[in-house]
Amino acid sequence: MGGGSSTRRVTFEADENENITVVKGVRLSDSVIDRMKEPSSPSGRPQSQHRSASGAVNDEELKKRIAEELALERARRDSEAQKRRLFGKLLERERISSNEHLTRAILRERAVTEEERQKAQRFAKQLEEKDRELRKHDAYYKEQLARLEERSAQFYKVTTEQYQKAADEVSARFK
Fold first, then answer.
1. Which residues 6+ apart lie within 8 Å of 62 measured at CB?
2. 44-71 tens-digit pLDDT
3. Is the Cβ–Cβ distance between 39 and 72 less than 8 Å?
4. Which residue windows does the record flag with biased composition (Polar residues) (predicted)?
5. φ, ψ of residue 60 in degrees (nearest 5)
6. What 8-state DSSP symbol labels residue 8?
7. Are 6 and 15 in contact (CB under 8 A)?
8. What would the pLDDT profile of 107-120 be if each residue is shown by its tens digit?
9. Is the pLDDT of residue 1 over 80?
10. At what angle do helices 30-37 and 53-173 cross, to 10 degrees?
């Protein structure tokens, strides 16, 4: 009978003239509506204060069914509210978990970045040290080259002088 997905509010009103309770916002089956439309008194007029026993039973049954429908609607709303609370808790847990995961990822990234920075600094120092070593070697080899060139010039000079002397001696002998 009750609507499973209805979110309407149920309100009661009492009609003062006819002592009829009007329920708004409740779904009723066709059979209940037909029974409500049927005149319960033989004259077809609205019932007065002197109701028959079957009319009282129908009214009691109708009230009982309406109360059942209201209880079902309340239970459905309570169930939906509980589902919303549970869903809210799950969303909150997911949000917290996501934030923790994101925080861990950020910390890991920062650690990796710091490690790479330190590694770059070590490589820069190693590069500077090798550059200094290469400059030392370059200076040493240039110095050695200058000495060798100087010795070579001295040997050339001595050899040239000896050659000149020997040539002069041979010339003097054969003249």
1. 32, 35, 36
2. 444 444 444 555 668 888 888 898 999 9
3. no
4. 40-52
5. -65, -40
6. P
7. no
8. 999 999 999 999 99
9. no
10. 150
Token pair listed for 118: 């330190």
Q: What is the phi-psi region of residue 15: left when phi exceeds 0, alpha when psi lies from -120 to 50, beta otherwise?
A: beta
Give the separation between CA 42 and CA 146, rounded to whole angstroms. Answer: 141
Question: What are the helix (H) ranges across the chain?
Answer: 30-37, 53-173
Say if residues 141 and 149 touch (Cβ distance below 8 Å).
no
Q: Which two tokens stand for residue 84?
A: 């919303």
| pLDDT for position 60 | 83
> CA distances (Å), 94 to each of 81, 85, 88, 98, in order?
20, 14, 10, 6
Q: Which two tokens stand for residue 28?
A: 């009723």
Per the structure block, which two tokens stand in for 145?
């080259």
For position 64, what pLDDT does the model report? 87
The pTM assigned to this predicted structure is 0.39
14: β partners: 21
Structure tokens at 119: 């590694």
CA atoms in the 13 A half-sphere facing the CB of 67: 6
Kindly state the helix (H) or strand (E) to which residue 13 belongs, with its residue range: strand 11-15
